[in-house]
Each structure stands twice: as C-alpha cells, then as structure tokens.
C-alpha cells in the first residue's frame, strides 16, 4: 500500500548527505588535499539515491495502477479506515524496510565492484 514511502524517505536523507559530502569534497579540492578514493563518495551516494528513487517511482506507479493511490485526499486509500491504516503501517515496517535494506545492500556491492574495477584500471595504466 505505501511501502514505497520508506525508500523515498531514505532517498531524501541520502540526497541530503550527498550534497553535504559534495561540499566537503569541494573544500578539500580548494585546500589542495589529494583524495585517495578513486570514486568520490558523493558519486556513490548519487547512485544510491537514483536506485532508491527509481524503485520508489516504479512502486508508486504500480500502486496508482491498482487504485491504492488516488488523486484526492487522503491520497492513500488505506488512510480512510483505521484497520487499513494499521495494515499499511505494518507493510511499511516490514516490506518497505526490507526493500530499502535490499537496495542499500545491492548498492554496497556495486560500490565494492566499482572500486575494484577502478583499482584494476589504475594498476593496468601504471604498468604500461
């Protein structure tokens, strides 16, 4: 019913952290500090926010398609009845959190693989 809200909320938090990290990286660049990271953390956080927002929008579309989200108040059909609200909160706490965690774990795997590829490309470039 509203499981996509959890991923969307995480995406908002990640986007705020990403912007803060971009400012820190810009300050480090101005100070002349050399970064040891091959892929900046802000770029990795952008990947996570894209993954979370993409999944949220797809789920939102699916919920609109099935009539669980409507264009009038209260927007979520489950919000009109107390029993449905409890079911919706339970779904958000179980399914929504699990989906957000799964996306975050997949993102962590992608970051690890991307760093290894970047490290390998650097070592091949130095050998030549």
Task: Give me the secondary-structure topology.
Elements: H1 4-31, H2 41-65, H3 82-127
Helix and strand content put the structural class at: mainly alpha
In this structure, how is the largest beta sheet organized?
A: none
Rounded to the nearest angstrom, the radius of gyration is: 20 Å
Total number of beta strands: 0
Low-confidence stretches: none
**Percent in strands:** under 5%
Q: Number of helix segments?
A: 3
H-E order: HHH
**First-residue to last-residue Cα separation:** 56 Å
Principal-axis shape equals: elongated
Tell me the helix content. over 70%
Average pLDDT, rounded to a whole number, is: 91
How does this structure look, described?
The chain is mainly alpha-helical and 128 residues long. 77% of the residues lie in helices and 0% in strands. Helix 1 (4-31) runs antiparallel to helix 2 and helix 2 runs antiparallel to helix 3. The longest helix is centred in the C-terminal third of the chain and has 46 residues, at 82-127. The termini are far apart. The model has no long low-confidence stretch (mean pLDDT 91).
């Amino acid at each position: 019913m509203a499981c996509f809200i959890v991923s969307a909320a995480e995406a908002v938090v990640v986007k705020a952290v990403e912007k803060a990290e971009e400012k820190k990286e810009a300050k480090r660049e101005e100070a002349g500090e050399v970064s040891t990271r091959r892929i900046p953390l802000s770029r990795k956080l952008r990947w996570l926010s894209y993954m979370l927002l993409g999944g949220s929008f797809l789920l939102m579309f699916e919920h609109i398609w099935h009539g669980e989200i409507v264009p009038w108040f209260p927007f979520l059909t489950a919000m009109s009845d107390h029993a449905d609200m409890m079911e919706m909160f339970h779904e958000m706490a179980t399914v929504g959190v699990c989906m957000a965690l799964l996306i975050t774990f997949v993102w962590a795997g992608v970051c690890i693989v991307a760093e290894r590829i970047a490290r390998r490309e650097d070592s091949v470039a130095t050998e030549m």
